[in-house]
Design goal:
Elements lengths: L3 H36 L5 H26 L5 H10 L5 H19 L1
């Protein structure tokens, strides 16, 4: 396990991974299921339900992102990637893997 000095960062990275996965999942559900149901099947309630859920997941992601990067040690490129990852399909999943690698490296330092 991470040392006491790294435990807060490790825990924050865990929350970031969860936020990334949640944001990525809700974006795919919105774009892959709800929007087609609205426009192809004429079922607009799908976006009325999934849209706000994704909106909350998106806000949660950025709230966690601000907390995560405020700890320092992130390059501008990494921060930009993490911001853009929330806006492209599958980006949240790639970001989750990237954060997992950083978490693993943190464990290697302990």
């Amino acid at each position: 396990m991470a040392s006491v000095g790294h435990s807060h960062e490790y825990n924050q990275l865990t929350v970031m991974r969860i936020a990334s996965f949640l944001e990525g999942t809700t974006l795919l559900v919105l774009l892959g299921i709800a929007v087609p149901l609205k426009h192809i099947a004429g079922y607009p309630v799908a976006t009325s339900i999934v849209g706000p859920v994704h909106g909350l997941a998106f806000l949660f992601y950025f709230w966690v992102l601000v907390q995560t990067i405020s700890g320092g040690g992130w390059s501008r490129r990494q921060v930009l990637w993490m911001m853009l990852a929330a806006m492209i399909p599958f980006g949240g999943f790639f970001n989750e893997r990237s954060v997992a690698r950083r978490q693993a490296a943190l464990l290697g330092e302990a």
